[in-house]
Design a protein that fits this description.
Elements: H1 2-17, H2 19-27, H3 50-64, H4 70-86, H5 93-109, H6 111-115, E1 120-121, E2 124-125, H7 132-137, H8 140-147, H9 156-173
Antiparallel strand pairs: 1-2
């Protein structure tokens, strides 16, 4: 989901708000404990960690509110809600319904993204939403009902294990 955020949502926001204005919105945010404060900019960073993308996700809605149309904010907010709801370790019928409602809300408000001409491809502006990961999201509810959760779409567990084992190996070799 982080890659989807970086490849699509963040790019749509950048195209609509503008890189300079978006950077200035992030620069003036108050510092918060356990979150990175972007003192220079976010749009010119070549590589970001998953934690940095998550820190941007936490504040993206507040950063674009007022700078774009309410329908655009609702579209982005709906996909962010969906992303957060998919990360629940345990799902109930209510969380599944909320998850699918968030995705449905995105489809209702996605015309705002098209109206701002934020969705671009190699050949220019795109008015469709044929995005493989977006199509895959339609099947999340069924997968959760069959498997219980979507652990294969989260790298947190593997990333933490890799860090722990690499540190142990490094200390052992030193």
């Amino acid at each position: 989901m982080l890659q989807f955020f970086a490849d699509h949502l963040l790019r749509w926001v950048k195209e609509t708000v503008g890189a300079y204005e978006l950077d200035s919105h992030f620069i003036i945010l108050y510092k918060q404990v356990s979150m990175r404060h972007f003192t220079k900019c976010i749009m010119h960073i070549k590589q970001m960690t998953g934690h940095e993308y998550r820190d941007i996700q936490h504040t993206i809605i507040a950063s674009i509110a007022g700078a774009v149309s309410p329908r655009f904010v609702h579209a982005i907010h709906s996909l962010m809600d969906f992303a957060y709801l998919t990360q629940n370790p345990v799902h109930s019928p209510q969380t599944l319904q909320e998850m699918m409602q968030a995705l449905s809300d995105f489809h209702y408000f996605k015309d705002a993204i098209v109206a701002t001409k934020a969705r671009k491809g190699k050949k220019g502006i795109k008015e469709d939403f044929f995005i493989l990961k977006l199509e895959l999201m339609q099947s999340f509810e069924g997968m959760i009902k069959r498997l219980g959760m979507l652990i294969q779409f989260s790298a947190d567990t593997m990333e933490q294990l890799l860090i722990m084992h690499c540190q142990d190996l490094f200390l052992w070799m030193a």
